[in-house]
Fold this protein.
Amino acid sequence: MSLLLLVGADVVKGALAQQTGGDSWLPPPVVFSFGWVTYSFSGILAAVGDKTFLPAPELPAVVMSTEWGYHRTNNSWVINRLLRDYEDYWMPRQVKGRLTQMLAEAGVRRRRRAGLCVSVFEASSEKKAGVPDRDLLWYSGYVVAALQLAIAAIPWALYGVWQEFAVTALGTALAFLTASLQHWTQERWACNKNSNKTFVLTRGNGAQHAIVIIGAGRGLDLEDLATSSEGLPGKRSTPIIYSGLAVLWCVLLITVCGIENQTWFLLAVGTIGMIHTIIIAGAPRKPGLFGIHLTYKDVFAQPKVMKTLQELEKSYPGCGRSMIKTFFPGIYGKMSNY
């Protein structure tokens, strides 16, 4: 058990990124599991270093502003998850239908990927940007934490051995405390709000999908968010808080090393916590869980990329033109010479 507490810090970091943020009075439910001791020290490094606590983006992506035509390389974990989960999880049925039709039009040889599919969304007028929704997966953290405490209480009730319950209670408290720190909210939405800009998100040249998001005066500035990790302000208290948490996690580790009786219960607690943490860290989520509330508006999809951009430009001036640099860099280079 003591050795396992040092394994899996990246999984813990991913679960924290998924569950944290928001202004709810409830503490974000990230459960006690393996990997927390190692993560506590990596948190100190982030606090005194680049002030970046969210994981790095897993996939390359580009954020374009249709107003100025700027193209930003995405450094935001939130935008990365938005694109990662789009095709397999939260793509509207209208887009799925048009995409299937377009692939059929492209011919037998292009059943999997062809042309370009551009879906258009607008920032929702019913929900406030930067305030995340909560789903059953988020609330499941409380259920798992309660289950862990119940398991740890068994040896106390049957044999009078209370150390397992004390370790589980302290680990759960430290995990909830870490997840409740304000820097998670600041980093998740480190951008201007109530934006009137229109943005295009895509994985780059050759991608099947591009997502257009119209700010409409109530959305997040995604161009700002894409580069926000480069200059995040850090509070002076954050390194001190993480140092204190690291000391407490080390105390917990030493306590675990001294437990000799009924340790299988504690191992069960950690295993259940790790399984839940892995599920949370990798689970696909809808944009509303990241505080980006969208309303579907339109879809454009043609077997030829240029045809898609032309149709998009007619309906939403500036959108198609802003994407030429990414999907047709050669043509854009010639245009820029004139």
User: Anything to note?
Assistant: The longest strand covers residues 294-302. Residues 4-327 form one domain.
